[in-house]
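Quick bug: Citrate transporter output formatted oddly.
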Amino acid sequence: MALAIFLFTYVFIAGIRLPFPRLDRPGGALVGAVLMVVAGVVAPSEVFNYSSDPSRHAVDMDTLVLLLGMMLMADYLSQAAFFRAAGAWALKKAHTPRLLLVAVACTSAFLSAFLVNDTLCLMLTPLVLVVVEDARLPPIPYLLAVCMASNSGSVATFTGNPQNMLIQGASGLPYAQFVAYMALPAVLSTGVVIAGLLFVFREQLSHERFDTHPPPPPVDRPLLGLALATLVGVVAAFFIGLPMSWSALAGAAVVMTLSRRAPPRQAIERVDYVLLLFFACLFVVVYGVNKAGWADDIYRVFSPFMSGPPWRETLGFAGLTLVASNLFSNVPFVMLARAWVPTLHDPVLGWHVLALGSTLAGNLTLVGSVANLIVFEAARGKAELSFLGYLRVGLPITLVSFVLGLAVLLAEHAIF
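Here's what came back:
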């Protein structure tokens, strides 16, 4: 029963459209969670039975609270016109189509390292579309730079993307240690994205100068100063080891209290509660699969590829992560794989490999990452890209960046 419900849910998580029932990703996850409880696989008391033992409760509230806090912080930065100002500043420094692509990618990667990459893509895409339209440039390379660089840059920290937040909650690794290992793979992966896009679109991106730039947006300086100072404080709290979820939510509460802008209700209403509901329901579905023993059975199926010395186990797990994150979607796979990592020879390396593989896997296909979907949904009518068109660019960039990032991780663990 647990496996049947999981497969039913996966159909909709994978984005498969059926004539009946007509469910999307959040709807499929919600129905799957309800079925797990109704069928008796998961007891109602297990859903929110919060205890120190993660195996005894389904919903990981720490991850949801962390995601909520970062969403609220991002919303106040958006109200202060931070994203538009940062994008306009970066674009002002670019004088050629090729430098413009580099500026877009670097801005997206850097901001995604500290804020959730999905939110960053939502804020940055409209600005990029305005610039390329005014400059009469092809939009596809720059839209790919936004989503691909946001994926690669988000590798660097726990707060870069939802799957890294899940890994933080399950692993308990210190924020500073994670950044120390993952920063260089993130930088190199972003470099591969830039180099790959410049090469693939070399005939469309010239070296000729252009002077089309968006006018600087009006910035709410008091709110911007407050939000940035609070964000620095939140990141500092992460580094010294304070609880990440409540540090993020405390930061949002500070900005709410001291801000003189509109009432907090408006910021609270703009939170993506659909995403939070999707995660909560997915927690219940995956918990039911784990409770029924199917996660262990799945692991045993793939264990022959990871048997042998530690280096072979790591390479096998890395390959499984890259492939399964595209088959199952990266967030559900990370939820499943959290139970496997502690059994590896080097669990710390396993967590790092899981974060690297599940995130960079998002660059492989158009549907591999929510960030990709956000960018091209926002560009609907102005830029169209087929699944195969994306794959032609995403496949080589993903493979090269993944191999390079994995090599760096292995070298870092061997040295340190």
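Actually, after a second look the formatting is fine. The chain has a mean pLDDT of 86. Closing.
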